[in-house]
Amino acid sequence: MNPFVQASSGYADTDIIVNARLERVDMQMLDKLVEGLGHLGIVTTTNKALGEVMIQTTKDCWPDLKKAIETMPFEIEFLNSRKK
After folding, report:
1. pTM score, whole prediction
2. How far is CA 7 from CA 17, 29, 45, 69, in A?
3. Which of 19, 26, 41, 68 is paired with 61 by a 20 to 30 Å CA distance?
């Protein structure tokens, strides 16, 4: 399955939105760790009760950000990714 779903937008070639789910107790840690990476992405909570977040990044930053997130000390499930 291709993790990127094309959306019609003038920025479709650059921006990516990644939806993910993790334990509620780990949501703040994810936010702080991604924030500490600086320019790679921004985390926004979309459903606190379900532990769902949206990660905004670019196609150039996503590979590095994904590697960093996958090595973080918690489990995270990527639900889908789409170009913005």
Report:
1. 0.76
2. 11, 30, 21, 24
3. 26
